[in-house]
Amino acid sequence: MMKRMEEIEHYQETVRRRYNQIAYADVDFWVQESKEEESVVRDQQPAVVHPIQITKLDNHKEPQVAIVLEKPLDASAIDEDLSEPRNGTLPSFTLHIPPQKESGTFLSVPKHVLQNLCDYDARYRQHLKGIFLEEVGQFNPWNIAESLAEELTEEVLTDVAAELHGFCEDYAEAVFTSEFLQVAE
User: Are the C-beta atoms of residues 106 and 78 closer than 8 Å to each other?
Assistant: First the structure.
């Protein structure tokens, strides 16, 4: 028995030596190996630290911003009548916004920007109406989806329970066989 153990250990040692001494005939492998060794040597040497230089590009230009001169809008300006021209100021284009529970910041924007925002809001609300599913008469799509989900879940759970039950029976039979039938033999 001890002799067999020594043979196994000797064989394992031979396999280890062979595994660690693999010789490749590929020239590309040896070139790559030498590059890796050089990089290891370079990594071990302290690196030269170069100072950081921050420069500003000469051709960098700030983007031009269109400034619209309007009277700033504050919370009390919402209720003011815009039909009266003010002396020395441009009229502010605002939309009457009902008071909200949440606090916010009112912005004064040009008329075309406000119109674009209103158009986008209208398109978005139309999109929401198009995708929203409402119940019509006795037809309620959400109830149908819910009942289908419940049926599928019930079927899957039944299948999983049956598979688990079969597995447990097989396992119990295997345990019974291994414990009691071997003793009887």
Answer: yes
Q: What is the predicted pLDDT for the residue at 161? A: 94
Q: Give the residue, 151 or 135, on which the prediction is more confident.
A: 151
Confidence at residue 1, expressed as pLDDT on a 0 to 100 scale? 77
C-alpha closest to that of 73 among 93, 101, 88: 93
pLDDT band at 81 (very low <50, low <70, confident <90, very high): very low
Question: Mean per-residue pLDDT for 135-150?
Answer: 79
Q: Decide which of 96 and 157 is more confident.
A: 157
Q: Work out how many domains the chain is built from and give that number.
A: 1
Residue 155 lies in a domain: yes
Q: What is the DSSP string of 87-127?
A: TTSPPP--------SS--------HHHHHHHHHHHHHHHHH
Question: Domain residues for 152?
Answer: 140-184
Residue matched to tokens 């100072």: 51
* Band of pLDDT at residue 107, cut at 50, 70 and 90: confident
| DSSP assigned state of 172 | H
Q: Which residues pair with 136 in a beta bridge?
A: 139
Nearest to residue 120, comparing CAs of 131, 108, 128? 128
Residue type, 86: R
DSSP state of 181: I
Tell me if 46 is assigned to some domain. no
148 is a domain residue: yes
Is residue 146 in a domain? Answer: yes
